[in-house]
Amino acid sequence: MARQKPLSLYRNIGIIAHIDAGKTTTTERVLYYTGKKHQIVDVHDTKDGKGSTTTDYLEQERKRGITIQSAAVSTEWKGHQINVIDTPGHVDFTIEVNRSLRVLDGAVVVFDGVAGVEPQTETNWRLADQYNVPRVCYINKMDRIGASFAHCVKGIRERLGANVLLCQVPLGSHDEFIGMADLVAGVGYIWKGDDKDSPWDTVPLDEIAGRVNFTATVDKEWVADLAKLREETIERALAMDDAAFEKLIESGEYDQETLKKCIRKGCVSGKLVPVFCGSSYRNKGVQQLLDAVVDYLPYPGENGGIAMVDEDGHIIGDQGVIDEAPARALAFKVINDQFGTLTFCRIYSGVIKKGDTLLNVTRGKKERVGRIVEVQANASKDIDEVRAGDICAFVSMKETETGDSLSDPAHPALLERMRFPDPVISVSVEPKTRNDIDKMSTALYKMVKADPSLRLEVDKETGQTVLKGMGELHLEVTIDRMRTELGVDATMGKPKVSFREAFGNTVEHTYTHKKQSGGSGQFAEVKVIFEPMPAGTGVVFSDEIVGGRVPREYIPAVEHAIMVESREGQIAGYEVLDFKARLIDGKYHDVDSSALAFEIAGRQCFREAQRMSKPKLLEPVMRLEVVTEADYLGDVIGDINRRRGTVSDQGQKGLQASVQGFVPLAEMFGYINFLRSATRGRGTFTMEFDHYEEVPANLVDKLMEKEAK
C-alpha cells in the first residue's frame, strides 16, 4: 500500500514543561479543536476519580492531578497529521521526557505566565538541546493574576539562552486578557468570550489601539509598541535568508510566504525560538499554536535522521527518514498491563507490515510483528503497516526493551540509544503475603523493564529486594501502579540514599599474591598508584609497565579486577568514584603466574590501598527550589540551613518568592510535610540530583547508623 500522505504533512511533537504549567490542559484543547474529541475534561475535575483527561488516564494521575507517564495521541489539523506526546513535568519522571524527546521531531515548551522559567523547564530544555530538537515556546496562563509576558520572555532569553523571536504578544493580562497580537500576520485576535467555541475578531494591528483600553501600564505599552515590535520580528526573521534580507534593506519589501519560510528555517535549525502566548484554560490561542506547529516545526527527517552507531556507541553513519530503505526503528517506551506488552516505536526508515520479522540488533534476537496499533492514550486502533516517520506500538514483543534497535534482519543497524539518569534513592520492597513472592518479582521485573530509570537489586547481606529510583514519588507511584495495573500488593520500606565512596589521598601500594600448596602455585605482584580525580572523571586505568615487568597478557586481568572491585568500597560497600589506577610495576613467575593470580593481586591491592587512603564517603546533593509567599521565606531558609543545605539564590516568581539551594538527599525525606505545615499548604518545591559531595567526617558514623536501620 502506497503512502497515504506525503512526509511533509506529518508532525511528531512533544508538549514539555515544568509541573502545573498547563501541558495536559493544552493537549485537551488541541484534541478538541482538531475534532478528535467532543468535550473537554479539565485536570482539576479528575481528582474524584470519575473522569479523566485523554492523556492522564492512570488512576495515580487522576488522584494526584499530575502527568506520570507520557501518552501519545494522533490528530489532524489543516490536512497535517500531528502525533502529540504529552509528557510529565515532575522531576521524578524526567525519564519520560528524555525518551519522548529522543524520537520527536519538534517540541512545544509550555510556560506558566506567572512563574516563567522553572527548574524542570531548564532540565527539559537541556534534554531538547542534547537531542537537537527544534522548539516553539507557548506562554500559557496569561489570564492569571501576576502573569507577566515580559518576565517569561526575559527568563527564556537569559536562563535558557534561547534566541527568542516574538511571533505574538498578549493583548491584556489577568482578567483583561482578551487575545494576542500576531506580529507575523500583522493582525490582532480579540476573543468575544471564554467559551470553548467562542469566536474571535481579526483586527489589523494599527486598529488595535482604538479597540482596547487596559488599566495596567505594561499592557498599554505592549499595544503602543506593536509597530516597532513587528518591524523587529520581520528583520530578525528575514535575516535567515540573505536574498530576502537584502530585498528588505533595499526596498523595504517582503512577502508573507517568504517571512514564514524564514521563521521555519530559523526554528528547524535551532537558530530561532518562536514565542506565542495564550490561555489554554480560557480557550484562547490554542488554534494559533496549532498553526505554528504546522508552519514552523519540522516534518520527520527535515532536521536530519538518526545516528547509526557501532557496539561501543561510536557514530558510523546516519539513517535518513525515507521509505525506500531497509526497515529501522527505535523502541522508546514499553508498557506492561494485564492485557500484555505494548512496545512504542519510532520508525526511522522503510516499511514494516503486520507479520514481518524484525531483528532486535541490540540483543541479537528476532521478533515477529504480530499486531501494529496506532495509540490514542489508553485506546488503540489496529493498522496493517507503518512507514518512515510514524510512531506506533507493536503488541506482545517478548525481548525488546526501551532503547533497543529493531531492523530488517538482512540489513542490521544499531541506532543511537538514549541516555538515562542513574537512580539516587532506594527502598526495600516486600510482598504483603508470603504467597505473593513470585508474583511480586514478576511484577517488579515488568515495571523495571518499562522504566529504565528504575533498578532492581537483591541485597547480598540481607536478602531484601531493593528498588532504586529518581525520588520518593517515583517509587511510591511504581508500587501503586503494580497494585492497580498488575494486581500485586507490596509494601515499601524506608527510603535509603545511594551513597558513593572516593579515595582520600594518592596511595602507592604493592601487593604480592603468593600461594603454595603442592604442585604448581600462584604468584603475582602488582604495584599501583591510586589517585583521586575530579568529580565526573569516572574510573581510569593506566598501563605504565615498562620492560615487560608484567607480561602483556596479564594486564587486562589487573584492570578487570580493579574495575569490578571499585563497585564495592571499603567504608560501607558503596561504589567508588573518580580515581585513576596507574599500574607502574610488578613481578611474575614463569610457572606460577596466571591471569587469575594477577586478578586476585589486583583486587587485594585495590582493597588495601583504598583503606590506606583515608577514604571519603560521598552523598548525593540535590538542587532544591522552593516557591512560597514571602512571609514564609525566613522559615524555609532556616530549615534549609538546619538540613546541612546552602542557599544559592533568592528571587521572585510572579507574586511569590523563590529560594534556590543545594541540600543533601539524606536530609530531604518527608520534606513535603514540613513545607506544607510551615507555609500553610501554599509552598511548592522541586528537587533534582545535582552532584556528589563529601560527607563531613563527624557525620559518617551517624549516617551509616541511620541507613542500617
Task: Summarize, please.
By secondary structure, this protein is of the alpha+beta class. Strands 18-17-23-14-15-22-19-20 form an eight-stranded antiparallel beta sheet. The chain has a seven-stranded mixed beta sheet with strand order 2-3-1-4-5-11-6, with helices on both faces. Strands 25, 26, 27, 28 and 29 form a five-stranded antiparallel beta sheet that branches.
Explain this structure.
With 709 residues, the chain is of the alpha+beta class. It folds into 5 domains: 249 residues, 3-Layer(aba) Sandwich (Rossmann fold); 95 residues, Beta Barrel (Elongation Factor Tu (Ef-tu), domain 3), CATH 2.40.30.10; 66 residues, Elongation Factor G (Translational Gtpase), domain 3 (Alpha-Beta Plaits, 2-Layer Sandwich); 115 residues, Ribosomal Protein S5, domain 2, CATH 3.30.230; 90 residues, Alpha-Beta Plaits. The protein is 28% helix and 31% strand. It is built from 18 helices and 38 strands. The strands form 8 sheets. The chain has an 8-stranded antiparallel sheet. A 7-stranded mixed sheet has the order 2-3-1-4-5-11-6, sandwiched between helices. Strands 25, 26, 27, 28 and 29 form a 5-stranded antiparallel sheet that branches. The longest helix is centred in the C-terminal third of the chain and has 18 residues. The chain is globular and about 105 Å long. It starts with 9 loop residues before the first strand and ends with a helix. One of its GO terms (biological process) is ribosome disassembly. It is found in: Cytoplasm.
